[in-house]
Structure formats: C-alpha cells, structure tokens
Known about the structure:
The chain is of the alpha/beta class.
Amino acid sequence: MIAGNWKMNKEIGAAKSFVMELLPLIEEITGAEILICPPFTVLHPLYELLADSQVHLGAQDVFWEKNGAYTGEISAAMLIDAGCRYVIIGHSERRQVMGETDLNVNKKLITASTAGMIPILCIGETLEERKAQQAEKVVSQQLDQALYGLSLEEGEKLVIAYEPIWAIGTGMNASGQDAQQMSRFIRQRLGQKYGPGAAQAVKVLYGGSVKEENIEEFMQQEDIDGALIGGASLNPVSLANIVRLVGNG
C-alpha cells in the first residue's frame, strides 16, 4: 500500500489537476494498492474523478460522535458519503499540534471501524524517547491504548503506520533496519493481543521522509507492507514513480 497524506495542501483545482496527471502515469501498474488522503474540501470532487480508477480515497481525521453540536468536526458517515474508504487516525501532527490524546485516538478508531471504514492508525516515538531506549515502550503503549476495546477478528480492516516523529517532515528517516525492527515489534504485539492470523493480516506501513530514493529500502523489509508518504505525495510524478518502484508495472 502506498498512501499519500496531503496534509493541509491543495485546493479543488490543484487537486483535480494532480489526479488528471497521476492517473495516466499509473494505469499500467499493478501490485500496489494506492491511496490518497487529501483535505476534506476536495474529497468528493476527487471521488468523482477516481471512481473508476485503482486509487482509493482516505480522510485525514474523523470525529468520534455520529452527529451533533461539534463545530468544525466531521463524522464517519460524512466521510463515507464523500467517497472515503480509509481514514488516518492519530497522526503525530494531530497529537503534538492539536493535543490529541490516546483516549481521543481510541474513540476515533472504534467509531471509524464500527462505521465500516478502514483506519490507518499512526504511532511512533520522539527522538528523545528513542535516545532514551524507550521507543518500543512508547509504541507499545500507543498501540495498546488506541486498540483498547477494539475487536480485531479481521486484521485486514486495520492499517498501522509506524511514523517515528523525528523523521516526519525533517528530511531524516529511519534506516530500513530500524523500520523493520519496529514493524516486527508491532506485529508481534498484535499477535499477543489478537493472535498470529490477525497480526499477519494487518498492513504495517512506514512513514517519515519517504521518497523515490529510499522507498525500495523499506519495501525490502519483511514486515513492512507499504508507506505513508507526505511531501513526496504532493507531486504526481514523484508519487507515480514510488508506486512503480513498489508495484510491478
């Protein structure tokens, strides 16, 4: 899976132009599931363009209530109505900038799953935590608290993105070995909670300054099933090249 997180970038016109340029570049590529997560305002316009393509649509966040007096929020039903199948939950930018807690993440995860969406749960440690040899402890706590009360009988309905916070938007990235070590730890932790079948069914992505030059290093790792990509997903040629390197087109 190659998932592009556009963050707070692109208005409707630019988003449509991106898709029109991307689709011809990837139409012959197979072997990679492709996902774009744009801002809320362009979800439905892009859904209309992507409806007959191999590109899925995802949102960058969701609220945990079905409806009501929650100014500025958006529900799972609204996202599904706009054409979303996936939703990113717990991205480090929301945790750090917007103050999102593990409890918030847990409620959003349960809401999205109950609504039939596929959550992409983001977890990862800071540089200080890694230097203090606390990376696995932090990731384990984030994972346990996010999945509390969640049934995971069918692991394919959950995606986990390991994103070391120190590698997001910094130009730094974990080595393939670093990413593999944590991805294996995540899968082992899932196996302890839900059994080996569910643990193997869950896709584990790596995110953190992923680009054309380093995508193959991560995709060669046994427990990494794809990437959650930020800046490189804003350019259709770069995204198409990454998809080509991952797929077999």
